[in-house]
Amino acid sequence: MSVNLLKFKRRHWWQSCYIWAVWIEGPVGFGLLLSCRIVQALQLYFIFGKRRLPPMRSHVCLPLFLLPWFAGAALIHMKQPLNNHCHMGAQWVIPVVSFHTLYVATLVAFTGAIRHIEFRFNELRDLWRGIVVSSSSIGVWIAAYALNEIHEEIAWLQVVSRFLLLVTSSILVLAFFSISSSQPLLSQISIRRREPLKYETMGQALGIPDSGLLMQREPSQAIDPNEPLDKLLQNKRFRQSFMAFADSCLAGESVHFYDDVHELGKIPVNDSVRRIYMARDIIDKYITAGAPMEVNISYRCRQDILTTSNLAHPALFDNALNELLQLMKMNLAKDYWSSTFFLKFKEEASMRSDAHEIEPMTGWNFSPRPSGVRGADDPFQQECLTKHSDHSSGPTDPI
């Protein structure tokens, strides 16, 4: 009975050795995380270096980089080169270490190709960190293997070296790597959760002036329904009113697309990095098949955008914008003029116009007067109260 128990323990020990040494350290450990970083670097290289979308999506590219790891793990599992001490001979160690080094070298090559690009979200720093950690892990792994082979008779050294092997194959790598293969561009707009500042749109994350904001003293303009829709949409207040109406009709994708393309137009043409960030965000949000807010444009127009050779081109979305403006004119504009959204917009515009006429005569007088926005809904209420407290102690000069 004791012999059978010993055989069972030995069989269990061998199975544990192969699981950790072959699969945990390989395809589902070091190999998976290194492959994710390589895919990330490859995407950044195509998008910012070549200024075009990668030829393959990340969910297709990642399995291709993982395939050699699974093939190697299956070969080792079949050949079973581990001895009684769970060690591999030099004829196996050298190819395994060379294979790990090859993937690190590939990551270094792609990272070096994009090192001159001024990224906005620390992508390059994360890639260099991954290179340092992976190289250090390989060094620790080689040192632990050498200690196992040279001082095989020292029990405590065997325990320490095996612990180092375990750490480098799983815990250390998992702690320092982040699997970010699908969206290295940040569509992760708030990429760092530890940072207090969050952004609701890519335009705000990129620092586009007045992105998503309405200025308190933005001049009111009369809206003529007979003017072309594309000219009316240049007015931010009208655009937001029209967007709210379109959202209420469950057809707001076109207006949101127009708004984001309008924000893209504020970025200087020579600022290619920020333009690429914004263009990629628009493509992911509106253009790709199955996008969260996929717009209704022709197949040819969609393919022209997806296969463009320059993501920073100023006219990248012009054809799509023209198609969507025609759809908005036919489907949304006519109903908007008779909607409560337009009536509310006119009323608020009239109140703002009256306020601008009264203010130069009365100066900083914050006595109660009609307002289109009240209470907690007024984004400038706190600012007004501050000004009131500053000027309440004495008379002020009129503006």
The number of helical segments is 15
**Strand content bin:** under 5%
- Assign an overall shape: elongated
Unreliable residue stretches: 5-14, 178-196, 359-399
Q: How would you state the average pLDDT, rounded?
A: 75
Order of helices and strands: HHHHHHHHHHHHHHH
* Fraction of residues in helix: 55-70%
Distance between the termini: 100 Å
Compute the number of strand runs: 0
Structural class: mainly alpha
Radius of gyration: 31 Å
Describe the sheet with the most strands: none
Pfam families: RGS
Organism: Rhodamnia argentea
Protein name: Regulator of G-protein signaling 1 isoform X2
Domain RGS: 228-346
Task: Walk me through the topology.
Layout: H1 2-24, H2 26-49, H3 58-79, H4 90-113, H5 123-150, H6 155-176, H7 202-205, H8 229-232, H9 236-248, H10 253-264, H11 272-287, H12 299-306, H13 318-336, H14 340-362, H15 381-391
Pfam families: RGS (PF00615)
InterPro entries: RGS (IPR016137), RGS_sf (IPR036305), RGS_subdomain_2 (IPR044926)
Protein name: Regulator of G-protein signaling 1 isoform X2
Give a verbal description of the structure:
The protein has 399 residues and is mostly helical. The chain is 63% helix and 0% strand. It is built from 15 helices and no strands. α2 (26-49) packs antiparallel against α3. The longest helix has 28 residues, at 123-150. It is elongated and about 90 Å long. Residues 5-14, 178-196 and 359-399 have low confidence and may be disordered.
